Amino acid sequence: MAKPSEKLAESLNILHNLQERGLVAIRSSDLTRTHRERLSQNGFLREVIKGWYIPCRPNEASGENTAWYTSFWQFCAAYLQHLKGKNWCLSPEQSLSLHAENWTVPKQLLVRAIKASNNITKLPHGTSLLDIRATIPKELVEKNGLNLFSLPAALIHCSSRYFKQNPNDIRAALSKISDASKVLEQLLEGEHSTIAGRLAGAFRNIGRLRIADEILNTMRAAGYNVRENDPFETATPILLSAREQSPYVNRIRLMWHEMRELIIERFPQAPGLPKNLTTYLQRVEEVYTTDAYHSLSIEGYQVSPALIEQVRSGNWQPDTNDRENYNALAARGYWQAYQSVRNSLKKVLQGENPATVVDEDHSTWYRELFAPGVTAGILKPSDLAGYRNGRIYIRNSMHAPPSPETVREAMPAFFDLLRQEPEASVRVVLGQFLFVYIHPYMDGNGRMGRFLMNVMLASGGYPWIIIPLDKRNVYMTALEEASVNQNIVPFTDFLAELVKLGNFF
Question: How far apart (Å, rounded) are the C-alpha atoms in residues 461 and 444?
Fold first, then answer.
């Protein structure tokens, strides 16, 4: 007779085969009742709605939302395809956000279909699907299994309010339009004279004067009375590039310029580079144990000051693969990375451009952070290669970081923004926020972001600060508010308070 562990292994193998086929949304019919109940009881399967499940980790605490947020878009795609076939699409507003590469999980996903019941389907953690009866465009585009309005159709059919509610998404989407032809074709076909005036105003707002003029002139030549109307509340703060393959780059540029004034208003003024470089570096060295304890603990490592000091002094050697060894490897990597960061600090304190220093040095910090794990055989040497090559999700966050391809466009743009920024306070706040927003590595993004933040603090003469473990929830909530709602104020105030306290210097 098979043991319980053997039965569970059999069920897990079947679940693994389903996942290998790309199934994230799993129907009751995909598994026998026995396998389904066994996987659910052991925490490997979670019911979303009746008859539909998602895989999850058994160590995910009750009420935690990581598995759901990770699965949200794939689940919705599979569920809607099963329910409606091809005769559905997301709203033009949601389509625009996805065209702009904003994959933040919405509280309510609006779905249009010719045959719909105008019902709300409740989903986990306060999310839902609203199914409305409405026409769908002739030409749908498919993106990651989701049916969307094409970009021109979404621009034409979205509400005028969306330009004010989500200006960064709209502007990033508009920047993908290289000429007026596709937009004009649908404007003329639908006799959309009012919308033509709105889009002409929108294109002029982002500096695409040629497209704006072409829309106006062509519609007027066809006999329509078109009045240009700018749907945005403010002028575009920057000239948007049309050369990037991904609109994500334009989105982070817009976010930077939108957020920087708020930061300057709320953050303490930079005192300027310290006169005594040696004293500054000595103080950074003195707070190492405290910094390592809090930064590693925030990421879930169980480290004590005693273990950190043991690793620091060189009296620890990796010999096992137990939990204590795992924590010690993390502490050893943090010590090595900290020394590398101190070398970067020296360059900044001697007057080198802080963004250039971090751009050139951050890959070294990363290698030092994880080299002990490679030496011990826990990590593969390829894990030190650099930016991630796969999708990643942030625990308990509705924000979905960009694809690996987009990371490789976003990071150079990020360092350009950091390099061009004259205000140290902005470099501090947006340096850390946008680094973790992009999440360029498979692991270590939080620690790397805090290292970057402290190098930017040094560039303005601010003290090295430590995010206290007991403030972890406040810290994470502030980052989530900035990521999901583009509200940088709570994160700015959080860091500003630590700088004002100066409780580590």
Answer: 26
List, for the chain, all residue ranges whose pLDDT scores fall below the cut of 70.
1-2, 241-245, 303-304, 307-308, 310-324, 503-505
Q: Is 389 exposed, middle or buried (0-12, 13-18, 19+ CB in 10 A)?
A: exposed
Amino acid identity, position 345: L
3-state DSSP call for residue 241? coil
Q: In b/e form, how buried is each residue of 470-496, taking b as 16+ CB within 10 angstroms?
A: ebeebbbebbbebbbebebebbbebbb
Minimal CA–CA distance to 444: which of 389, 377, 362?
Answer: 362
- The CA-based angle 350-351-354, given to 5 degrees, is 110
Sequence-ordered alpha helix ranges (H) in 268-322: 277-286, 288-298, 305-313
Q: Tell me if 365 sits within 8 A of 337, measured CB to CB.
A: yes
The pLDDT, as a whole number, for residue 336 is 94
DSSP 3-state percent helix, strand, coil across the chain (nearest 5): 60, 5, 35
> In which element (H, E) is residue 26 found?
strand 26-27
> How is the chain split into domains, by residue range?
4-59, 84-221, 248-501
What would the pLDDT profile of 446-469 be if each residue is shown by its tens digit? 999 999 999 999 999 999 999 999
- Contact status, residue 430 vs residue 263, Cβ threshold 8 Å: yes
Pinpoint the alpha helices (H) of 354-395.
354-375
Class in CATH terms, 248-501:
mainly alpha
The answer to whether the CB of 416 falls within 8 A of the CB of 322 is no
| Structure tokens belonging to residue 154 | 């979404």
Angstrom distance (rounded) from CA 209 to CA 205? 8
Report the pLDDT value the prediction gives residue 322, as an integer from 0 to 100: 54
